[in-house]
Write a structure and sequence with these properties.
Shape: globular
Structural class: alpha/beta
Number of helices: 10
Helix content: 25-40%
Strand content: 15-25%
Length: 316
């Protein structure tokens, strides 16, 4: 008996427009170059080789044109090419967190400003957040080339010009210092921290990923989604980065409602909760996410008291 493949990815957020199988006819119509990478698999379904970074980039270009009206988007070779469905999930779950603090209504519009820590060269979170909810963003990165590429994306897509501003973090050991200024007010921060603690660890993980995607053993560190050093690893790895983020967040208790970060390694949660309790986070939330076989979660925290949370004005 032939098993019918599910057409809906029910693990994705209900508002995620990428819950259904890719409509390759529509995507190719938007971006004809994608056709080169599409083939029929053993299930008689159209797909593409997700271990090929050029195929992944072409898919992203097609999605951004057809779903987000982003006509001009590209990233330099070796930079992280993010899987858009998972990035969209993070944005929609943040909307839910904000809604829970706003009488159940998702706050929309340009008054809602998010801070994207480590925007990379791709600008994906601000693109999705602006399209879905008309939010504005400040994007930061320690990589000047990444910032320059984001500037190029923004300048070539006029609707983004007033919605996204960029800031280079000149002191790589800091996250919020030099970025959150006294006059700033953010509804949320968003971050996809470097997973690995070293280049070697990142390379081994990349080889494992290619092996899983192609079903053949690989020792070559081909990065299907790309990724520069700062995007993939940092001293201390994910837990080191998030620990630094938490300790810095204490200094801006009234300037940001929700600090949030992705946490890929479940084993890190215990330490993260311990540190958050130590620094006096008032409310801590954990939101589970899944994309295919990959399980991740968002941890969100705030230093606002219940009274301050109720008094936060999302409309100004």
């Amino acid at each position: 008996m032939k098993h019918k493949l599910p057409t809906e990815k029910t693990k994705l957020h209900p508002r995620n427009p990428h819950r259904f199988r890719y409509d390759f006819e529509k995507l190719i119509a938007s971006y004809p170059d994608l056709e080169t990478f599409v083939f029929i698999n053993e299930h008689k379904m159209e797909t593409l080789d997700f271990s090929n970074p050029e195929a992944v980039k072409a898919l992203n270009k097609a999605i951004l044109i057809s779903e987000y009206d982003i006509r001009n988007w590209d990233i330099p070779k070796t930079y992280l090419c993010p899987p858009i469905p998972g990035r969209a999930d993070y944005i929609h779950y943040i909307a839910d967190v904000l809604a829970a603090s706003n009488n159940g209504t998702i706050p929309e519009g340009e008054n809602i400003v998010g801070l994207d820590i480590g925007i990379g060269a791709n600008c994906i979170y601000p693109i999705i957040g602006n399209h879905a909810y008309n939010w504005c963003f400040v994007g930061t990165d320690i990589d000047e080339n990444a910032i320059q590429n984001c500037k190029k994306i923004i300048s070539q897509n006029p609707k983004l010009i007033d919605a996204i501003s960029l800031q280079l973090q000149t002191e790589s050991r800091f996250i919020f210092k030099n970025i959150i200024l006294p006059e700033d007010k953010f509804a949320f921060t968003i971050c996809n921290p470097p997973f690995h603690a070293s280049q070697e660890e990142a390379t081994k993980a990349a080889a494992r990923k290619v092996t899983n995607l192609t079903a053949t053993k690989s020792t070559e560190p081909v990065l299907n989604f790309g990724g520069k050093n700062a995007e993939l690893w940092c001293n201390g790895g994910e837990i080191g980065f998030i620990t630094q983020m938490i300790y810095e967040s204490v200094k801006y208790p009234l300037q940001c409602f929700w600090f949030t970060t992705l946490v890929s390694k479940k084993d890190n949660l215990h330490s993260i909760y311990k540190i958050l309790n130590k620094v006096g986070a008032v409310t801590i939330k954990t939101i589970d996410m899944a994309q295919g076989q990959k399980i991740s979660r968002i941890v969100a925290w705030t230093f606002l008291s219940e009274k301050q949370q109720n008094e936060w004005n999302f409309s100004e």
